[in-house]
Amino acid sequence: MYQILKKRVLTPQTKLVVVRAPYVAEKAEPGQFVIVRVREEGERIPLTIADYSREEGTITLVFQEVGLTTKLLGLLEEGDAILDLVGPLGIPAQLPEAGVVVAVGGGVGVAPIYPKCKEMTKRGVRVISIIGARSQELLILEDEMREVSEELHVCTDDGSKGFHGFVSEKLKELLTAGLKPDEVIAVGPLPMMRATCEVTKPFGIKTWVSMNPIMVDGTGMCGACRVTVGGETKFCCVDGPMFDGHLVDWAEAIRRANMYRDEERIALERCAGCGGEKHV
Amino acid sequence: MSKRPGRVPMPVADPRERIKNFDQVALGYTEEMALTEASRCLNCKNPQCVTGCPVAVNIPAFISLLKEKKFREAIDKIKETNSLPAVCGRVCPQERQCEEKCILGRRGEPVAIGRLERFLADWEAKNGRSPVKKAPPKGKKVAVVGSGPAGLTCAADLAKLGYDVTIFESLHAPGGVLIYGIPEFRLPKAVVKREVEYVKGLGVDIQTNVVVGRSITIDDLFDRGFQAVFIGTGAGLPMFMHIPGENLNGVYSANEWLTRINLMKAYKFPEYDTPIKAGKRVAVVGAGNVAMDAVRCAVRLGAEKAMILYRRGREEMPARAEEVENAEQEGVEFHFLTNPVRIIGDDKGWVKAVECIRMELGEPDKSGRRRPIPVKGSEFTIDVDTVIMALGTTPNPILSRITPGLKAHDWGGLITDEATGRTTRRAVWAGGDAVTGSATVILAMGAGRTAAQDIHRYLESGSKDW
Description:
The complex is a heterodimer of chains A (280) and B (466). With 280 residues, chain A is α/β, with parallel strands linked by helices.
């Protein structure tokens, strides 16, 4: 069992937990993820590692309550434990040693971009961050991101804070104004990452995205996480999760992400009755 | 010559009923049936059956004990060389192993050795196990990577010899392919649990949720005081055909399909949280045991039409004969000499048909089976909403890629010395599908046993003899 040592409610739907997971903490690198299962009847879902401490033997997970499993996870409090947690999985992000990088994080995607910015800043890379959410209340990790960025731009879709618009639009503004980053890293919802890639493509800027498809085992066994990159089928769990965003087949990725939408709704409706009751 | 009586048929659940559930299909012999079947054994002086068994179970000896109703002694005889008889009795391809060599098979039906093995294993489950004789502790640690048939066997043998064994398993439940791959109706998970508990009872520590190669490396294991490592990581990477449309919604690898069903219990959704898209018209590509498992799961999930598409003919099917027969009884359609060339989607990206080409059989290929050749211009389509690729699997390359000194073939299989299971890296052994590519439970167990013996030899030599 993997005990939750600390919990922070970042927004009504977004929670941060610090979990005791010595094996994962020992080996984790930015860009990697874990698979969790929260109850005996539970499914296995991937969550990106948002931070880790080798000394404490802990990792940090940030998740948005969108489906049954993340809802159940959100019900866990400090002292409770996650039933199963395995990792670190996936290939660590190949981060540059120098130069200028724009880090774009949308919604809960700000969490996985944080450890990358932290590592790049440590290495001396100039990190310019753009983070966004639908509105001010849903914005997460602003202070943390400010600490690991030379420059931080905040965006909200409704204009309640910072730039009024999408993170991709802010990026376009910066690039048009003459910013010339060596690369861009974008993490967030699929439409946001796609939009970011559409912005950078005409400028010819290498753009890395972190894919987060449906997974089962997370170790290359099932192929549920197939993504087409440059016309080739890749397994996100073992070949990714970071890919060249200009080569990703976004329409396919979005279609595959919605494969179980009906079932996800059924599972949630069933859970609606569970209220605050813990199902673990 | 008068015709000898045939083998006692295996009682099976009624096909009309069993297709509605995941309960066990083959119900097992009663004591009376087992005694009748055992009486057919000639107790040959020079028993060929034993040569057909990858772990050389002393078959005539256990059958003789069974005839005398010495069930305890009979099961213990099997367990001298086979630590998972309840599993083997259910899933071994006996018709190509022990039973193929049975002298009775020349003029009639061979003795149903597998069914007798299963009878005894199930008898033991009801009546309790004999206490295990364990050697005194040696104070030496051995790590086993993977808790499938190879790893469980290797761990059990080493524990009995007095070693301190830890198994590292990447999934949340031990058992490997026995738990994620083979469905409940063929191998009940309670049987697997029982076998795993037996291995734990020998003192083996099983650590789930640890991916060796990611969570911990082979080098870390040596740093932590393990003196030998056995790799039994199986062949987990699913193969695809690389044809257009393979990433459409509704196309599964057999591994994903079966893992969702067996390990995650998607057939109980929404009681269990993992969903599955159970189609009404399901095509499974391939004709091995995995394909049979996949298609029979589809039937149970409510498919109106469940089909096997196979590029060769009936004779060439690699599946166990009993499973093909079970599938036919359950209404599965077999389309032989049929090979998919393209999967066609609807405007929303879901599978709606599969385009196939007719094949004909040419000269025998490397496998000894006649090579299928496409018939030009014979393309046709079959309407389906689900396609499952059961084309075989290859070993996961993670470990060989990141472990210094551990060499693999291009196709991913670890390079080992067959007689000992030694890999190219000192103090590291491997066996099972990780070495051979997808094969059988019993071959994996045989490899686990071979490696355990050599690990013992090596450690007894003071880690000098390599």
